[in-house]
Amino acid sequence: MRKGDPDDPLLRQVLPVSQEALRVPGFVRDPLEEDVAIQTTGLIRKYRSRALLMVTGQCAVNCRYCFRRHFPYEDQRLSLRTGSIL
């Protein structure tokens, strides 16, 4: 990354910009339609032969282009304390 350059391509992958909060016709918050595929805490199952297990409360890097950027990771985190571990 180039220090002090807000247009650096690597920085733009992780730095949010105000335009991202704008609603754009034709675009939706959940493009992967995963909200309806949540089976139980931490388990997304859209396809019969596949499942996605969410074991942490956040992604390592919040990439600006990610389709899961609005996914409720904190709500879907598995926890030993709450007994929601599979």
Q: Would you mind describing this structure in some detail?
A:
With 86 residues, the protein is mostly beta strands. It has one domain (9-76). Helix content is 9%, strand content 14%. The protein contains 2 helices and 3 strands, in the order αβββα. The protein has helices at residues 9-12, 73-76, and strands spanning 38-40, 43-47, 50-53. It has a 3-stranded antiparallel β-sheet with strand order 1-2-3, with no helix packed on it. A hairpin with a 2-residue loop joins strand 1 (38-40) and strand 2. The model has no long low-confidence stretch (mean pLDDT 80).
Annotation keywords:
86 residues, mainly beta, three-stranded antiparallel beta sheet, 3 strands, 9% helix, globular
- Roughly what percent helix? under 10%
Structural class: mainly beta
Estimate the mean pLDDT confidence: 80
One letter per element, helices H and strands E, the order comes to HEEEH
Into which percentage range does the β-strand content fall? 5-15%
Radius of gyration: 16 Å
Number of domains: 1
Number of helices: 2
The number of E-state strands comes to 3
Ends distance: 40 Å
The strand order across the widest sheet is 1-2-3
Largest sheet: 3 strands, antiparallel
Q: Which descriptor suits the 3D outline?
A: globular
Flag low-confidence runs. Answer: none
